[in-house]
């Protein structure tokens, strides 16, 4: 399904903004756009627990706030634990008749660091306890808010400030941790990957995740002009190339059943994606070839899973 | 205690802090002008525009507003000049031009 | 109907939590606190307590889940000890500065290393600066009473601070004593329903936990500190109301046989009861000696403390913890509280009971004798340990 130019978009998508402009996201921030789109799919009957990170810092500078929905930030690694408490609290208060029964979706928002590194324990626990919540991981592939330090979501070969490319190093020497598959391994009802370059796909997935009774997880690639070192107007194109080269495939897993949302028989060469980003500019052909081989291998793995556990 | 005050000067005292530093006024950040960040601004050619709404959809700052007549207008109070709207416009109706020196 | 039953202090705490109709319990098991979450889980499983029991995967997540639950207006409880309290250290600060009235029982346990599951006050002393209201219990009855009281005080709209109730690990937590349990109707009279004025609610969207740049952080902290100091008013009010309904009155500093006492021994927690035996013995022999037990630890009860010691010549402070390089933590604070007061007693520091090392009445007898000797010799700047095998090394304290 190719994204066609949608006429009358405002008739299909709400014009309500759950967080106001006047926030301090960078110029051209993919994460800001992804968050904005996700909020359009969520609606205002939510409570959001947010990890420390770009989103939290850019939207909640005391004494003001961008948020127009109930929102809480406590610490960095405990978003899933905080939302577990919120979810348990709401459920019991409604059960005891202390607050009126209504549909309030508990949503956890965190970055890649707050999810796959320091936050993974709390997330795993929340999945296992089967709380009813939607977890959105906004992945800009490094600890961007503190200055582009590496995380376990930083892809192979990318240069960050704590795994920089140098005379003796190509930057990140480990492979990107596959958080979506870790979520699938917890047997939760819904897991998906998304990208703001495919806004309707993203919004549909957020809506689907929000409707699940139980845990759901959406991993959203968020191109970052500041950290990935690309021109600010290329955010959407880079996100599209991430999908079209297969480095970030869009797929869903519903109760263990896989569906590939965009299956390109011929993936574009990854070089088209890498050459637009300064964080990869040090890579020689040998490394690019390695990355291409990794992508090919991973894509085959994914298509085999899709075939074996088809939705 | 007022929450509308954004300029934190010597008149913002400890008495002005809400319990737990909780902000009770939703969306109060809307008073912050982020438009002075930009070094280029979008100019829309209405002749070319087909009202497809993609510029509005893709703006990370929600700085493009839908108008009654179906066209879209950039809110220069917030627009940071990233140029995404110009890039995604299927009709090439938006061009980025340098901000003038003030 | 009011009953007098034999209850382990841990179970007394669980019973108080049940009678307080707590909404959310998020706890992680750790010796010697385990009997509390176990008993609570039983109560929930049997339908005796209508609460959400969240079996979190670590103490850090336990306190984090408590923050979330309190933020939506649920009455929240957790319990921990030693390493668990350390693991949730950063969250404990967030709980108080974000003003969530969580109640936590801490079964005081020694901190690693070496690993010890046994009791001392090192875990409590490591959280002095967390802006939690903190009390130390002497017996099972207090464990029950102060848990109920904690909800009353923490949730008061003039307070909105979390409360820590300290019980000595094993020495109190696992000890069965007679406890008078009140009627549910009395508890309901004492403890109003929790109404949190800033509850997360889509109908009134608020932002909790915004970040504070340098030009606002100081104001935020001072505002918090002033509110924390003012909470003492409700601390005392809560005890007054408790006494009026249940007939047991508590106070920040308990004075035992202090009338005309030249020498005072100061303890905290359950060792107070053992020390009282020594006071009785010595009084029996005509010695002018008394005991004070510090019940309210934070906010520090300056006035009550100074009042309690104003007539003494010697104050012997027994610490169950070492602040490395500095001395006994309670001693340091107490000496600082007395600085500049005229008249003031000589203060002597003795440290013992670490890592579950028991202190018998004979040990406390030694504490008193040695404390008096040190004061009379004028060498109270040097602290000494009690009951440690090997020669006694004197250290600057």
In short:
Chain B is mostly beta strands. In chain B, 10% of the residues lie in helices and 16% in strands.
Based on the model shown, name its key terms:
heterotrimer, B: 102 residues, mainly beta, Alpha-Beta Plaits, two-stranded antiparallel sheet, 10% helix, C: 397 residues, alpha/beta, Rossmann fold, 2 domains, seven-stranded mixed sheet, 13 helices, 17 strands, 40% helix
Structure commentary:
The complex is a heterotrimer of chains A (311), B (102) and C (397). Chain A has helices at residues 9-12, 30-42, 54-59, 79-95, 113-117, 120-128, 179-185, 199-211, 225-228, 235-244, 271-274, 285-308, and strands at residues 46-50, 71-73, 105-111, 134-139, 165-166, 169-170, 190-194, 216-221, 251-254, 257-260. In chain A, α2 (30-42) packs across α8. Chain A has a single domain, classed as Thiamin diphosphate (ThDP)-binding fold, Pyr/PP domains (Rossmann fold, 3-Layer(aba) Sandwich), CATH 3.40.50.970. Chain A is built from twelve helices and ten strands. Chain B is mostly beta strands. Chain B has a domain at 33-98: Alpha-Beta Plaits (2-Layer Sandwich). In chain B, 10% of the residues lie in helices and 16% in strands. The model of chain B is unreliable at 1-5 (pLDDT under 50). Chain C has two domains: 3-192 and 210-246, 3-Layer(aba) Sandwich (Rossmann fold), CATH 3.40.50; 255-396, Rossmann fold. Chain C is built from 13 helices and 17 strands. In chain C, the strands form three sheets. In chain C, strands 3-2-4-5-7-6-13 form a seven-stranded mixed sheet, with helices on both faces. In chain C, α1 (9-19) runs parallel beside α7, α7 crosses α9 (214-246) and α10 (271-284) crosses α13 (361-377). The relative contact order of chain C is 0.12. The mean pLDDT of chain C is 97. The interface between A and C is large, with 49 and 46 residues. β2 (71-73) of chain A pairs parallel with β9 (207-208) of chain C.
